Fold each of these.
Amino acid sequence: MSAVNPIARLQATNPEMEIWFDSSPLVFEDWLKATLPTIPSAAELFKLEPAPTGGVRFAVGSLLQGVTTNQPLTWQVLEKHPAPWRAWLEAEARKTPGLPVQEAMWRLFIEIAARGAAMVWPLADANRFRCGQICCQVDPRDMTNLDAMLVQARRIHAAAPNIMVKLPGTKEGVDAVRILAAEGVPTNVTLGFTVPQLVAVGEAAKAGLVEAHRRGTNLRYWRSCAVMMLGRYEDHPLLQAQAKERGITLSVADLRWAGIAIFRKAHQLYRERGYPTKLMAASMRVGPTVDGVMRVWHLEKLAGANAVLTVFPNILEGFLMTYGTAPLPSQIDAPIPADVMERLMRIPYFSEAYDEGGMTPEQFVAHPALQVTAASFAESMVKIEAFAADVLKGTKV
């Protein structure tokens, strides 16, 4: 591995740090082919090997150690390559006359995740499932329906041992973490925007793990993660609106510090309390521009974290291009600039997210960023369901 590869150097800031790919691995080859001509160092991120069923898969030693997906990223797979998936679902429909649309949707959705799981399987197998997972999300339309999410979660994980079930950061989603941990089902809580949510996930996983040990549950495949959606949190217009009401002007740097501050505080609490959950930074954005150069603070300022950093393809590209030989010291424990914190703490949208007691679990679902993001996830699930319905309509059984 080249000494100048910034992803390798970022990962070296903490031996427990994991760098994941924030897109379906089924679009990975398309991205890599498009990226290599302009950023040859991207090839260093991956060790690839032929997959037994054709194509390629990640080999042991890859710098990217896992994959996150959601409904929009799954829909992207169907948009890019609709023909083979139509053919696959048509075959399923012929095998099951009268196949309901909802069932067809779930078969399709889970098959996409299972094929992605096969691509990262060597990483999971070689590392005893300490990494090498793919995340597959329950239906966001059921984010307050605990029973429905539990049924979906068990089915999703049953498709492959290295599929980690993504749950929403609602009270019911957090409750599901505890129940599924006791069963040995790995989970990752998304739609996380606040310290109270992230702490609640750690507590739920801890309680579920106690129950798992009491039952003698097989925990070979279990792990727990909790997502802070950095960019989605910072993007919500309420942050800027409340700042403006108070006569505060927020720069791009201030916005980035807001998400980073929440993540760093949660990281400190996790370390102090020894939660069995690993924090995950997601939904990254570029910026700010420093000395005329576009930085990626969502990676740079989290250097040294005992965390998963799951990175969009475009963020990977920007980081590889910008950080060639730039220093990447550990910064996870560095204080947020005092003047920045003074501004941010005057804004309720931030102070409530930063304060461990700023929200109750019952209030999680009403967080503005959660509402907006969940709606976008649900919209993509509707598209996947419509794709399945269209295939069934045209299939002769």
Amino acid sequence: MVEFAYAVGRIRALEVYLLSQSQLLRMLEAKDFDTAYSILRENPHYAAKIDQLAHPFDYQALLQKELEDTKVLLEELAPHEVIFVIFEKYRPEVTIGGYLFTLKQLAKKYQIPLFHQYVQGFSILNQLKLDLLLGEAATEEFENKYRYTDYYLPIKTGLEAYQKTGSLAVLEREIDNFLLQIIKKAKYQVFGIEPLIGYALAKEIEIKNLRLLLTGKIMQIKPEEIKERLRGSYV
């Protein structure tokens, strides 16, 4: 859509500040929190945000502000239901079941192929996660149902790890990485709302990665253990 041309231009200018996988891995291999944080500060976007903090090393405040600033920017650039719903999941009163229903309704309402593909993947994979949390997942049946689909690898990898460890961490990583591959297609679209959707979700995953890395450094978790949960990068 031509009406998003200005918004897409703004987003393209911001995409250059998204963290690459090599930058994330440098933070992962850093010897301690201070070193990892100094690597993050090399990024001009984050350096400016850190300078605005009341306490410069309060990374939780930094990441919360980054999420809020992204939400405000995108909703100003594109006051559209599809943008609003991406951030709705963070409202405390929203349940995963209710959120999945809302996503599906919007995917039907707006014929945006990329958004529809994202919603379908998000819904299937997070329904599995919800069923596991509730103790209602027939794991073998779920795996067989999607055996010959694109969802099979993240489901198989996530379920195998869950059955061994009882943790959803690998499944959550696989879900995010699968969805990341879908939204990366937005990088090649010149017009439309898709690049804004892509940027919103890219930022969401980047913030998850930073929280994982910086918390891991503070808690002195081994890099290989952090890496098991690290998501990919949009750029």
